[in-house]
Amino acid sequence: MQIYIDGSFYSESEAKISVFDHGLLYGDGVFEGIRFYNGKVFRWEKHRERLYKSAAAISLTIPMDPDSLTEALLETIRRNGLTDGYVRLVVSRGKGDLGLSPWNCPKPTVIIIAAKITLYPEESYEKGLKVVTCSTRRIAHGALSPMVKSLNYLNNIMAKIEASHAGAGEGLMLNEQGLVAECTGDNIFLVSGGRITTPPISSGALAGVTRAVAIEIANEFGIDVTEPQITRYDVYTADECFLTGTAAEIIPAVELDSRPIGNGKPGPVTRRLITRFREITRMEGTPV
Ligand code: PXG
Q1: What residue ranges in 15-107 does DSSP mark as E strands?
Q2: Are residues 154 and 237 in the same domain?
Q3: From the CB of 212, is ligand 1 less than 6 Å away?
Q4: pTM value?
């Protein structure tokens, strides 16, 4: 494996960053998880745009222009000889001292790892995931914007631990008002009476790249997607539910808090969306 760090490539055992990097000391940095399929990077421009916005929001200047970053990303994939896989792109505040101040970190660290991805088993797509509501609430806008894809994932990790303890495949996260925001690493959608809804970004959801693709596909099918505030009641009583994320793609959720959603099986709308999503990922993207 060849890993990109600040303009050079290293083997996995040689790929090292400073223990004084504020990404490690404070979770001070941003990242993206990106997929490439069939030799093409899926929705790279959208991931790149979100990365630069996340960085801007935390006052972090990415030390590369967008074109150079694209070239670094593609070169990392090429060097690893992969046609299908996952990329983790991290920009941390960089090496500083033990103090909080980012001003003592002169240069952000850019890391790009391209790897094979361990997917959810196909069974999860055929049978659907069980989901439980986590007691850990989604981080509040007033603390740190949940739109920032930052290296501070403790909030989601706490929720993920709860979901795992409950034997669930994903955990549902509510915002401070108790409204549905998203899952620990996926956005959530409902299908009810032929209509599709998903919580608004303002509820505390990440503006997921896959979320946007799911909305596009639904529109292509002539199904309107609206973004009302969503409660757990809406999930319990929906006909279908599915989750979207770079790792999970589009995956059915068939149970919330031990209540079956719809008939407790992946529904027809979800299945159609999954099929179309798989077609699109094979076809489009930035060539490696
Ligand atoms: N919400 C959150 C909180 C996320 O972290 C999504 C939604 C989906 O966004 P995209 O753009 O990927 O459609 C994410 C995705 C994982 C994993 O292993 C997922 C994410 C980050 C790190 C790991 O499932 N983010």
Answers
A1: 29-37, 40-41, 85-92
A2: yes
A3: no
A4: 0.97
